[in-house]
Amino acid sequence: MLNHPSLAIMRCSARPEKITIKQCSAIAAALFLSVVPHVGAAQFNVVELTIDDVQAGFAEKKFTSEELTKAYLDRIKIYEPYYNAFTSMNSKALETARAIDKRRASGEALGPLAGVPVVVKEAIDIAGMPSTVGWAPLSSATGGVDLIPEHDAPVVTRLHQAGAIILGKTNIPAFSNDATRANTSWDGPTYNVVNKEIAPGASSSGTATAISGNFAVVGLAEETGGSIQNPASAQSLVSVKPTFALVPNTGVAPLAGSTRDVVGPHARTVRDAAILLDVLAGYSAADAKTVAAIGMVPAKGYTSKLSTTALKGVRVGLYGPGWRTKPLSNETRALYQRAIQELRAQGAVVVEDPFAGSNISSLAMPNVEYDPRGTESLAYDFEQYLQRLGPSAAAHSIESLKAILKVDPFSSEGPLGWYPTVLPELAKSLKEPALPPDLSEFYQLREAYLAAYNGAFKKHNLDLLVYPQSSAEIPTVYEQSRYPETAVSEINIIGSPGVTVPAGQYKNGSPFGLLFMGPMWSEADLLGYAYAYEQSTHHRVVPVLTKVKSKRPDIARQAN
């Protein structure tokens, strides 16, 4: 019997066949809670705590890092079985929290996230924890083969340097390849904490559920085509989809690591998102493309432009047929009109359909719901990702991975099988994935999008765009319809930033959000505008969690 935390951790390290990594992690966390006396959630409430609240609590000795971490683990223990936000828990979380408490007690200068509980998307490598990419063949919990990275992704290193307490890794669909749900995950569906019947958003579903459900303070999400903004908006969160190359994405299982993939914050407030972006942003020697970020990070940080008057006098471009011909639903139109009036009340000047007469809508790939261009780099990026795992990892190339698993993720039946059929350069690259593919057509496309995008900003003297993040209410968790986003893949191909902020709620209970967009490297300005809107409206929907099992909990528990 595992009757002590140290024994649980030892057994987890050995990974016996009858005990999965997730089960071991959960046992270890639960035993820590049971054998160590603590204040716990009974004496303070973690719901809606901000980073500033947490740091004030430490300063005023309301709780320690260890007590706060235990309180979040208590909450996870209660509600995780009903929402499935996590794939694995970090058995070292309490140990890390105790170390932070000792450093704080000694008077040591600490980082901006010191003692703050955070979560990390499953696709992002944490040394010693399994990186399953959400795919059953890469999880020992479902009889597959674990890939255990030897190195943290740079963004995880930055979390450690900032003093964050990583509670665990959050659920994703197989290979992050779903813009609406996590139902193809080996670990089963993740549920939306605002309303369990509504889809949780996209491949960062687990992070969104964890943050909106108050399982942690902030979290790392990642996007190729909507997977930061969709789940954030679907669960009434603030998020930042950063400019491509602002935040390193090395050590992140890719879909388009060389061209589109970005890592960014999920938070409940704009200020928390800005603080987390300060930790994540900037050049890393581990990711050569981030050299583009040198000189682009604001000297005073991403909180420097947070102001309740930031919207006064700014020129805001509105959604219209010049951007996309797809109309807004009647309910979306009503919610959007209310939001426009709220922007005007803050002193913003709105510009109708600034892309009218431009060619931006004609640049989209025809006859597809999702434009995947940029994903031509997938084979090369995945090969590089596998090589970085370290000598002890089970596989270091696509070929060795296929040999071990006896299955090909790029086959017609695999989770990535669609991409080679629509992207000839990817099909070619799969024959020699160690060689960089020819991405010249994609970069010509990016240049065309940038010309149209920046041209509209210049023509109308715009400061930002504010769109409804979805064109209709969010679909349900088990139906097949796609998330009705309004700016995917446009801003992913362009590489420009977007900030989501809550803006209301549909009649079916799904949250309504706004997407604030600007030129490349304009995150600080966008966060300032979003802050002014947030502080004047306070539209975040605070979920009330329930202990009710889904009616169809096993529908997606299958090997993909």
Structure overview:
With 560 residues, the chain is of the alpha/beta class. 33% of the residues lie in helices and 10% in strands. α1 packs antiparallel against α2 and α2 packs across α4.
List keywords for this structure.
560 residues; alpha/beta; 33% helix
| Counted beta strands | 11
Mean pLDDT: 92
What structural class do you assign from the helix and strand content?
Answer: alpha/beta
Report the biggest beta sheet as strand number plus sense, adding barrel if it closes.
Answer: 11 strands, mixed
DSSP strand (E) fraction?
Answer: 5-15%
Radius of gyration: 22 Å
* Distance between the ends: 34 Å
Specify the helix fraction band: 25-40%
Q: Which strands sit side by side, in order, in the main sheet?
A: 1-3-2-4-6-5-10-11-9-7-8
Q: Helix-strand pattern, N to C?
A: HHHHEHEHEHEHEEHEHEHHHHHEHEEH
Oligomeric nature of the chains: single chain
Given the structure, what is the number of helices?
17
- What ranges have pLDDT less than 50 throughout 5 or more consecutive residues? 1-23, 25-42, 555-560
In one word, what is the shape? globular
